[in-house]
Design brief:
The protein is an alpha/beta fold. Helix content is about 35%, strand content about 10%. α7 links the parallel β5 and β6.
Length: about 230
Amino acid sequence: MANFAVGTDNIDFDAARARGIAITNTPDVLTAATAELAIGLLLALQRRIAEGDRFLRRREEWGWSTSFMLGTGLQGLTLGVVGYGRIGREVGRLAEAFGMTVVPMRELDRIGEVDVLTLHCPLTPATRHLIDAAALARMKPTAVLVNTARGPVVDEAALVEALQRGTIAGAALDVYEREPEVTAALLELENVVLTPHLGSATDATRDAMGGLCVEALRAVLLEGRDPANRVA
């Protein structure tokens, strides 16, 4: 089975093993694209880019002023990275270029220190609803959440409540708990930026992912060998 993704939470590993089916994924080639999207989402949220776009499309009256639609810059902020693998490290590298301090978070013990919490961990039983009401309550009220990992890592109902109550300042999401469904309340909030699972969505990245899948299928089916990207 050549999985057209780096995550493998969509696969029944026990059933595959029982049938002797090899499983591969598409690592590395989507690292840069996904990391770029995470930073893009953060910028759109902090600098109110998507909100400003919606404002103009509503044809609202406006004029320049010193206090109009103020946002928050990235320089000097602390970025907590949950899941410090290939993508998490690349997000950290890009964030440092913006003057952010990067904190790899193998646990959530420092969640109250960060200004931005960005998620890049796989979806497993241990990470499902990792970011729940209790975790959100420990964040700064000025902090924001970015999720380009998997939707169920976040308890969406708890996130909505936290955003409505001002427990945290905002969220930028590319993935959803019941994808492709998006919790309706998220669509009504101005302090939320939403994209439809675009992490790897560039021409070059999707071509490279397809190439890895073809190479894996050729290796197993035609050449009788294990591909380098075999995960089970």
